Amino acid sequence: PSLLPITGGWRNGVHELLIVFHPASVHDSLAAMAYKTRLPDNRTFSRKPGYQYGWDWGPRLITCGITAPVKIHGWNELKLISARVITRKIESDRAFINAILEVSADQEMIMTLKCIESKAGISETIKVRLDVGHNEIRIPFEISNPKLWWPNGYGKPFLYHLVVESDLFDSAVEVPFGVRMVELVQEPDSSGVSFLFRINGKPVFAKGANYIPQDNFITRPDDLKYRQLLSRAAGQGFNMLRVWGGGIYERDLFYNLCDSLGLMVWQDFMFACYFPPATPQMAEEVRLEAIWQVKRLRPHPSVVLWCGNNEIDEAWHNWGYQKVFGYTKADSLKVWGDYKRLFDTILPDVLAQNDTTRPWWPSSPSIGWGRKESLRYGDMHYWGVWWGNEPFEIYRKKTGRFMSEYGFQSYPLPSTISYWAGERNKLSFSHPLMKAHQKHATGGETIETYLKRDFNLPADFDQYIYLSQVLQARGMGFAVESHRLAMPRCMGTLYWQLNDCWPVTSWSSVDYFGRPKAFFYQTSRLFAPTLITASVRLDTLWIEAVTEADLTRELELTVRVISLDGETIHTINEKVNLDRDHGCVLMKKALRELMTDTDKNDVFITAVLSSAGSGDIARCRTTLCRPADLVLRDPKVSYTLMTVGDHIHELKVMSEYPAFDVFIRFENDSEAVFSDNFFDLMPERPEIIRIESNKSISDLHEGLKVRSWYGSSDAKNKLPAR
Predict the structure, then answer these.
(1) How is 106-129 classified by DSSP, letter by letter?
(2) Which residues contact residue 95 at a Cβ distance below 8 angstroms, ignoring those fewer than 6 apart?
């Protein structure tokens, strides 16, 4: 954004504002030649969203234009620049806050201010003296028994609304605020140095994802798309989103929604992966940009961290650009010196002058994932899975103090692929249209490599799409479980990535059209306050759990070994206790104690935590072999469908035999919204799914399709129901 004075030449009559856009790519090339030292990419010579130049999940569409309203601000005597409320201190029964107003006056004057917040018991009138020029007014208040702003899952994100009135204002000013303190705690411990967010004095485990712009054309997403995406994330148990540095500073609505939903925001400044030059012109542009954005975003209680950039420090130290481009010592001093100027001086100085209420983190990650130190301190981007071709199980060993990036691709839903490719029965994964919507050089091959480790490759196109999503959910489930079980050593898990900017095969959990993939549905279990996991290692069953809830009662752990016919072979019931905020092992049993003559490929294991007062608290399932080796039965899925409200339907799904990752869709309604999907189905436990759809019951019956593991892999491991 730019603030430009227009007083010169102003006259009565009609005026025309002419804005000329020059091609960014031409500007970038000319600026790169003037800079002389070659940088990895010329895109850094323009302050434009980096992703518009193309990324490994998005197209190259270098747009230009004005993305927000153009306004003329005129004033006489006094101009209100900004208004915000900060929390100075929180005690057990009161909070101390400051209302801070920035005003500019063209003469000395006395201003009367009336401040009202009925919920906080604030009603006060004060007089302040204004000097010519810039004035900062600080008005201290006390709130008795304050309602605090908490992240989702830790309490309500309560918002107050301070109203400030003055006869010198055109209208009353409303200032929403939350009573909230934030700290980034980095303290030495037995594992290295901690990295955790403390909100209102309470350690918080961050659960969420990396967020990218919702479209290559910034103005295209409407308010509804924002509301749906963020409310769904909060509904799944998210409490943090990282606004990634290769995108945009989001519109006000995004931050307002995060405030109201309890979604903490890790806010990157908009720099990612490539070295930015710090020429005098660029440095000043960055400084003004940062001042504008910091002042705009600092009133929001959801914003809990300013981060300088994404992966530029790592790129300098680990990606070998110095060798690739043949940098001399002088070249290196110049490029790294520019980096230090921007991220060690300019941005910290802007924050020191404009917002000292939030922590600052220079670059994410602090250390590359190939270095052992990354497991001991700072935040970590772990890409050994996918980029390094490591197995999913490696997440148990490769868990750092705060996991701010990791991910795995899957194909989007069939309806999304049909949008760009037409009839799917004519498609193959080598089709030019499929390749055009896969921006990673080896994306399809990597999905297939991992898929063959767990499943037999299906010949059917839609089955392959389905299994790719099951695979992504399986791998990311390993990751989230590992991160949460490592609590309190690990205190955050943000996967890559929440959403897409166009229809594409990518790491997203929700595609461009807002259609959730399998992994997104599973986050409700993975991000729930209490998580239980089951895994088999060296012929031993491990049952582990972690909770962020106060489970003061003794819990019941029920472990069942179940045949693929649905018959329980062995049951264990034990009383267990679960300490808050610490991952723990509830049970370790040799498989020979649980089963004798039964083949591993003919059973699976479930574990359930329950209490007398709350019923089932958490559940999980594991197999004893890879899914491809299971001797699956035809589950014989059946259902009933009924309308229960205006465009609201209820689907009751049943099966005669166990079914895993049951996927429901309507071929004639790609916009139907499901309360759950990709769920396990047991004969004794039907699932009831709530569906929002504008279609009639008869249309939904006609278009309903059901898929599960049975029938989606090689037929040699399928048996008919007995």
Answers:
(1) SS-EEEEEEEEEGGGTEEEEEEEE
(2) 87, 89, 142, 143, 146, 148, 179
Residue by residue, DSSP assigns 657-715 as: S-EEEEEEEETT-TT-EES--SEEEBTTB-EEEEEE-SS-HHHHHHHEEEE-STTSS-G
CA dist., res. 48 & res. 55, Å (int): 14
**3-state SS assignment for residue 633:** strand
Tell me, yes or no, whether 48 lies in a domain: no
Q: Does 265 lie in the same domain as 329?
A: yes
Beta bridge partners of 380: 403
Same domain? For 268 and 351 the reply is yes
549 or 170: which carries more pLDDT confidence? 549
pLDDT digits (tens, 9 = 90+) for 621-646: 999 999 999 999 999 999 999 999 99
Active site residues: 311
Could you check whether the bond before residue 472 is cis, i.e. omega within 30 degrees of 0? no
Q: Are residues 192 and 172 in the same domain?
A: no
Pairing of strands 303-307, 264-268: parallel
Domain count, the chain: 4
Q: In whole angstroms, what separates CA 219 from the centre of its chain? A: 21
**Is 170 in the same domain as 205?**
no
Indicate whether 422 pLDDT > 90. no
The residue with tokens 């002419």 is 18
The one-character DSSP state at 636 is: -
Residues 348, 224, single domain; the answer is yes
Is 594:541 a contact under the CB 8 Å cutoff?
yes
* Residues 66 and 112: beta-carbon distance below 8 Å: no
Q: Omega before 348 cis (within 30°)?
A: no
Q: What is the CATH number for 432? A: 3.20.20.80
Q: Which amino acid is at 216?
A: N
Structural domain includes residue 202: yes
Rounded distance, CA 508 to CA 531, Å? 23
CATH number of the domain within which 87 lies: 2.60.40.10
Last residue of a domain, one of 133, 160, 177: 177
Does one domain contain both 298 and 219?
A: yes
- Tell me if 492 sits within 8 A of 404, measured CB to CB: yes
- Band (pLDDT 50/70/90 cuts) for residue 713 is low
pLDDT at 597: 77
> Half-sphere exposure (CA, 13 Å, Cβ side) for 453?
15
Give the integer Cα–Cα distance in Å for 423 and 697: 26
How would you classify the pairing of strands 659-666 and 555-563? Answer: unpaired
How many angstroms separate the CA atoms of 660 and 162, rounded?
Answer: 51
Q: Are residues 621 and 637 in the same domain?
A: no
* Pair (600, 646) in one structural domain: no
For residue 206, give its domain range. Answer: 184-521
Report pLDDT for 523.
Answer: 98
Inter-axis angle of helices 443-454 and 461-485, to 10 degrees? 80
- Residue 56 falls within a domain, yes or no? no
Kindly report the number of other CB atoms within 10 A of residue 51's CB atom: 24
Q: Which pTM does this prediction carry?
A: 0.95
pLDDT score recorded for residue 242: 99
Nearest to 376, CA basis, from 401, 394, 395, 396? 401
In a domain, 216, yes or no: yes
| Residue 263 half-sphere exposure toward CB, CA atoms < 13 A | 28
**Per-residue pLDDT tens digits for 66-85:** 988 888 888 888 889 999 99
Query: Is residue 196 within a helix (H) or strand (E), and if so which, with residue range?
Result: strand 196-199
Domain-ending residue, one of 608, 625, 642: 625
SS (H, E, C) 429-488: CCCHHHHHCCCCCCHHHHHHHHHHHHCCCCCCHHHHHHHHHHHHHHHHHHHHHHHHHCCC
